[in-house]
Specification:
Oligomer: heterodimer
Largest sheet of chain B: 8 strands, parallel, barrel
CATH class of chain A: Alpha Beta
CATH architecture of chain B: Alpha-Beta Barrel
Number of domains of chain B: 1
Radius of gyration of chain B: 17 Å
Number of domains of chain A: 1
Distance between the termini of chain B: 13 Å
Helix content of chain A: 25-40%
Structural class of chain A: alpha/beta
Number of strands of chain B: 11
CATH superfamily of chain A: Class I glutamine amidotransferase (GATase) domain
Largest interface: A-B, 38 and 31 residues
CATH topology of chain B: TIM Barrel
Number of helices of chain B: 10
CATH superfamily of chain B: Aldolase class I
Chain lengths: 208, 252
């Protein structure tokens, strides 16, 4: 199996590479690239994302043909794709970090700043928080409800169709922290930094 | 609910751990990679390396250590000490660090914090502030491990780094550091109340009660400690169980 981590020159993806390499050991051929032909021939794609919504979208758009290739991969060919952090947020129609920015529009919804209730909650939301599983998701196989995952973000994805939500986390309000829609998977938390449970989730994705 | 983090900090000099854990199971007590792995396996919420290498020639060694550690530890890794340029940050992040902590360079030029957070995102920029009490409820920023006075008020500086995009503040009391008499709670309270970003408490931990005070009385989001874990007085697990027994939420 060929799994590609999309390297679109935005933010630090070393931890994503290290954790996927650990989980993939001997089973999966892992590529880290923005090469469109390699992405096309992959079986699965991981779309990481760090920094702002705008900077990630801008970086994706800077690589000619990348957005169309990803769209064809996930929306037309329906092959599994996992978005992590801003990688998930970009599934939305629009994001409001830095400036109003058009997203990929794969799952209708928006990305807005977490309401910190006038400073009652610190932002970024940094650290370990429990996930509350809302529906069965293939990437949660053998992962218990209320498991701890590592978060670091100030913005949240608000999908229009609530049935895509596979888990939420409690911080100032119920924040969407995982989605599954057909072949599309996304986590707001960082499985690559979430210790053994995070590695298990990555393993689940690789085994899909 | 968001959990309070416990962060063990390892001081690394010329590639070797200074004041390391003294466990019998250690093959090499000076190996930072092995020590980080022990911490991560025992439930540390993050790992922090502080590079105290004095000479420039040996600065490459920390990069190598980070690279090896990141392949074995899958919890967040913060690296500080001598982070002065965008290139320093790039090198550390590429090696596998998740966050960098900036100290003197932030004091010298707060625009550096802005530039770094814009380029890499606030999530990986920690500003380390060394504070020393100058009068009642007044603290001043010090640099170079507490040797150099700057005349800058800590509250003002903390607000300034927040405005410039710091994602967290690592706050060390120079008065308390090394004393094992507990964090400077007044300092912590003052800074956690005047900023909206998470504050990591540092300097002075001698007992598990001190960790409790830092979180509950000081309002810290995370507590950093070195010696109580290094010398095996307490394990990370002991700290977590103690805090949990006192109704402080931690990741167990």
């Amino acid at each position: 199996m060929n799994v590609t981590i999309v390297d679109y020159q935005s933010g630090n993806i070393s931890s994503v590479i290290n954790s996927f390499a650990e989980a993939a050991k001997g089973k999966v051929n892992l590529e880290v690239t923005s090469d469109i032909n390699k992405i096309k021939s992959s079986d699965k794609i991981v779309l990481p994302g760090q920094g702002s919504f705008k900077s990630c979208v801008d970086s994706l758009n800077r690589i000619s043909g990348l957005v169309d290739t990803l769209k064809e991969f996930s929306m037309t060919n329906k092959k599994p794709l996992l978005g992590i952090c801003v990688g998930l947020q970009m599934f939305a129609d629009v994001g409001y970090e830095e400036a109003e920015t058009k997203g990929l529009g794969w799952i209708p919804g928006k990305v807005s700043k977490i309401d910190n209730q006038k400073g009652k909650f610190k932002l970024p939301h940094i650290g370990w928080n429990e996930i509350e599983i809302q529906k069965e998701s293939k990437i949660f196989k053998d992962i218990k409800n209320k498991s701890h995952m590592y978060f670091v973000h100030s913005y949240e994805f608000i999908p229009e169709d609530k049935s895509v939500i596979s888990a939420t986390t409690d911080y100032s309000s119920k924040i969407v922290c995982s989605v599954e829609k057909d072949n599309l998977f996304g986590t707001q938390f960082h499985p690559e930094k979430s210790d053994k449970i995070g590695l298990k989730m990555i393993d689940n994705f690789l085994k899909l | 609910m968001l959990k309070n983090r416990i962060i063990p900090c390892l001081d690394v000099k010329d590639g070797r751990v200074v004041k390391g854990i003294n466990f019998v199971e250690l093959k090499d007590a000076g190996d930072p990679v092995e020590q980080a792995k022990i911490y991560s396996d025992s439930g540390a919420d993050e790992i922090c390396f502080l590079d105290i290498t004095a000479s420039n020639e040996n600065r490459e060694t920390i990069i190598d250590i980070v690279r090896k550690t990141a392949k074995e530890c899958f919890v967040p890794l913060t690296v500080g000490g001598g982070v002065r340029t965008i290139q320093n940050i790039t090198d550390l992040l590429l090696a596998g660090a998740d966050k960098v902590s900036i100290n003197t360079a932030a004091v010298k030029n707060v625009d550096f914090v802005k530039e770094a957070s814009k380029k890499f995102g606030s999530q990986c920029i920690v500003v380390a502030i060394d504070a020393k009490k100058v009068s009642d409820n007044k603290w001043e920023v010090f640099t170079h491990g507490g040797r150099n006075k700057t005349g800058i008020d800590v509250v003002k500086f903390a607000k300034k780094v927040e405005e410039n995009g710091a994602g967290e503040i690592l706050l060390t009391s120079m008065d308390k550091d090394g004393t094992k008499s507990g964090y400077d709670i007044d300092l912590l309270k003052t800074i956690t109340n005047s900023t909206n970003i998470p504050v990591i408490a540092s300097g002075g931990v001698g007992s598990l009660d001190h960790l409790y005070d830092g979180i509950v009385k000081g309002g810290a989001s995370a507590v950093l400690a070195a010696s109580i874990f290094h010398y095996g007085e307490y394990k990370i697990k002991d700290a977590k169980e103690y805090l949990n027994s006192k109704n402080v939420s931690v990741r167990l």
